[in-house]
From TrEMBL:
Residues 9-170 form the N-acetyltransferase domain. PROSITE patterns: GNAT. InterPro entries: GNAT_dom (IPR000182). It comes from Winogradskyella luteola. One of its GO terms (molecular function) is acyltransferase activity, transferring groups other than amino-acyl groups. This is GNAT family N-acetyltransferase.
């Protein structure tokens, strides 16, 4: 079994105690563009989501893990979505919630752990990510982890004022 523990962080399943953290992330308007969210989520809905978060990835077709520092502070979330076992592929998304925790290598380490899990445990052939064209930090993070830009989706997302382009990046397991 592949370890979900790195040098500075570890990944773990969501727990009921994550209610406040997930509620804060899902209701942070500045982050809504990452998930195409347009409305706030109630604590009740987040609680129900957490109750079902333990569903097997083969059934739910997605997996959300908490990113925690070795001091047990939850700092972000990392997702496997659109899990497609037949074609052996899935999407990956990552979020480090607080800006003060960004640019410290936590995202890089979390992404490396999840990619390793996807390839060695889930036996996927490829993983992909969708990243807005202006999000240079995320583009750099994924490209430094072996992802290649394979296309640009023009006018893909509307932020309320303008249409934005989005790259699709892909990493194939050699």
């Amino acid at each position: 079994m592949v370890s979900l523990k790195g040098n500075h962080i570890y990944l773990r399943a969501l727990e009921p105690e994550d209610l406040n953290f997930v509620h804060k992330v899902e209701n942070d308007i500045s982050l809504w563009h990452l998930s195409d969210t347009q409305t706030p989520y109630s604590r009740f809905l987040i609680e129900k989501y957490l109750e079902n978060a333990q569903q097997d990835i083969f059934e739910a077709k997605q997996l959300r893990l908490a990113i925690c520092t070795n001091e047990n502070n939850t700092i972000g979330l990392i997702d496997v979505f659109d899990f497609n076992i037949k074609n052996k592929r899935a999407g990956i998304g990552i979020l480090i919630q607080d800006e003060s925790d960004r640019h410290k290598g936590y995202g890089k380490e979390a992404l490396e752990l999840l990619i390793n899990y996807c390839f060695k445990t889930l036996h996927l052939h490829q993983v992909y990510a969708n990243i807005l064209e202006y999000n240079e930090a995320s583009l750099k993070l994924f490209e430094n982890n072996g992802f290649k830009k394979i296309g640009l989706k023009k006018d893909w997302s509307f932020d309320g004022n303008q249409f934005l382009n989005e790259y699709i990046l892909q990493r194939i397991n050699d």
